[in-house]
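Quick question, first post here. What does this chain look like in 3D?
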Amino acid sequence: MEKLIAKDLLSIGAVFLRPEQPFTWASGIKSPIYCDNRLTLTAPSVRTDVENALAETVRKYYPEAEVLMGTSTAGIAHAAITAHILNMPMGYVRSGAKDHGRNNQIEGKLEAGQKVVVIEDLISTGGSVIEVVNALRDAGAEVLGIASIFTYGMQKGLDRLAEAGVKNVSLTNLDVIAEVAAETGYIKPEDVDRLIAFRNNPSDESWIGGAK
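> Answer (accepted):
Ran it through. Tokens below.
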């Protein structure tokens, strides 16, 4: 599954790999990779693979799940489609409470004690998805874990998830993306080490320019 999803994401340009021309994140960090999983929604065959894989992940790793909750905004569509496949209720969590109406942060019916799986599109440092988990816990939900499409596998993200006591299962990850990209000629084989070096320490830019 990891390789299939990796090939899918690369095939539609949802993952861009540019070790020679790094992207600059909002934080200022230079990155050889940029991921835009929203593009999966406009590619029906890839979308089908992704949503079926998310549904299978929920079945396999979270068999007690009662509700799916998407992250706002990228996880909403994926949560809705996956919930439809599984015939489960879904909702989503806003980044903050509304300033009008009922001032909801959680949209959709959620009862205290319900077992929830969070659907996320990607995880880097883990901060935003943990905020979603905390909002659900504050509302009385039992968060079983996260099902995400892609994770960078950064240590900061792994540490934050562990500290929050939340499990994440991703369909694919940076290591697999790099392997598949090298196999298919998307990047040079020697660039794999550069991608892994970035993953291991994003603040160290020694990988730029070919340094290993």
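The chain has a mean pLDDT of 92.
The CA atoms of residues 45 and 69 lie 24 Å apart.
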